[in-house]
Design brief:
It is elongated, with a radius of gyration of 22 Å. It is 31% helix and 27% strand. A 6-stranded parallel β-sheet has the order 1-4-3-2-5-6, sandwiched between helices. A 6-stranded antiparallel barrel has the order 9-10-13-12-11-14. The chain is of the alpha/beta class and 307 residues long. It starts with a strand and ends with a helix. The protein has 2 domains: 2-161, Rossmann fold (3-Layer(aba) Sandwich), CATH 3.40.50; 187-305, Riboflavin kinase-like (Elongation Factor Tu (Ef-tu), domain 3, Beta Barrel).
Amino acid sequence: MNIVTEINDFDRTPCVATIGSFDGVHLGHKAMLAELRKAADAKGLPLMVVTFARHPRLLFDGECEPFLLTSSREKLALLESMGVDYAVLLDFDTCMAAMCAERFMNEVLAGALGIKVLGVGYDHHFGKPCEGEGVEQYAIYGKNAGIEVLPLSPFVIDGAKVSSTVVRRALSAGDVCTAERLLGRGYSLCGTVVRGAGIGRGIGFPTANIMLEDEFKMLPLDGVYEVDASIGGECYKGVMNIGVKPTVSREMLRTIEVHLIDYSGDAYGKEINVALVRRLRGELAFDNVQALKLQIGVDVARVKRGI
């Protein structure tokens, strides 16, 4: 997959394309890209996804709570796996945010990128918000710019449209099973193992403390989760705690720690990826460390036995 970061240096390429944040690259996105892949193949053109180097929301609210379902690296890897030929990462700034849809289609989509067919969701909007704009109006703009606008149907599961918002809602409730069903894969957290206080090791359950690769990556509801982890090219079952560790810490800082079952060796500095399987329980405040140790033992046993 070709990654384009400077559209002014891009050699205009006739293509079939769509535009959006594509955060999560969920099953709705997958269905959209599959439909556009067929259209691109029928016309003998490459498939392009126009997205953003950073989520547009961060331009207006850089201090918002973490909300991203995928880091830039994760998103690009997923897009490539879905047969995308070009991924254009727009530098979304105040100038671009002020562009109306018609100008954006003329100057960026047609002028700079050479797009010939643009797939647009039935409720998709881009450019500076303008009341009444939608697919029908985009089709008119597109015709004037030499772009065929292709309306795309929503992807529905159990009568509900799949969207990034619905995935975030599930994660906020700790419902990682629903998030997995909407994403088509387990929700994952990727980062680097850093040093912690060593409390887990002291009670017989050493943990890998994770520093996320993207500070705006969304965490699910605090609690204890079963995870499938990958580190150093090997895969392990694990028990992960997300929360403030009320039994052993007074700092009330939210951390991510995972005990890798049957792992041995030094994990510090290594990249780790954990896919959430299910939520085992909420985070609890125990009377003492011994009670905490006993509960962790129960959590680990549940994961090992699959119960």
